[in-house]
Amino acid sequence: MIAVKIKNIKQFMNLLFNSDSFDSFTLEEASIKTMACFNIDGLYEKDYFDDPGEENAPSFPDPYTPWRLIKPLCRDIIKGKHTPIFMKFVLHGDTGFMEDPSFLGVKALILMIRFESTGLSITTGTSMKEFILGSDTDRLWDEEVRRLLTSLNVEYEEL
């Protein structure tokens, strides 16, 4: 697990809300505090669509909704002339980059994004289906997040 402080908040928020940089992630939960507090449970509700077989009904294996589908909703909540008081997004990363079969026990690769008056921080974490000795999964996920931030030219400081 690593925790980083993002140096350029505006740049990161632009990447999060106005680009496809995080579209491969799914949303477990979101909390946005503006004039009211908005909490979003990211569990995907298949029953929302009248006919699950319809052409526009998304289909994916993760039980959580893709960030790309929730992102416009969150952007609408925060847009305006006032900065939100608080925001927290718990995203799940794609385990596809972990090619080693020993990583099949991964339940979720977590990326928690937290914004408040003290700044913007990101914390990584892993959730396993069962207890596993060692921290290879954590180390690989942390390296992947560092690579992602670096590839997006996001300046950060590890805490």
Description of the structure:
This protein is of the alpha+beta class and 159 residues long. The protein has helices at 9-18, 67-78, 136-151; strands spanning 3-6, 26-33, 37-41, 65-66, 86-93, 106-116, 119-128, 156-158. Strands 1, 2, 3, 4, 5, 6, 7 and 8 form an eight-stranded antiparallel sheet that branches. Helix content is 24%, strand content 32%. The chain has a domain at 1-35 and 66-133. The chain is globular, with a radius of gyration of 16 Å. The protein is built from three helices and eight strands; from the N terminus they run E-H-E-E-E-H-E-E-E-H-E.
Short synopsis of the structure:
The protein has 3 helices and 8 strands. The chain is α+β, with helices and mostly antiparallel strands and about 160 residues long.
How do the helices and strands line up, and which of them pair or pack?
Layout: E1 3-6, H1 9-18, E2 26-33, E3 37-41, E4 65-66, H2 67-78, E5 86-93, E6 106-116, E7 119-128, H3 136-151, E8 156-158
Antiparallel strand pairs: 1-7, 1-8, 2-3, 2-4, 2-5, 5-6, 6-7
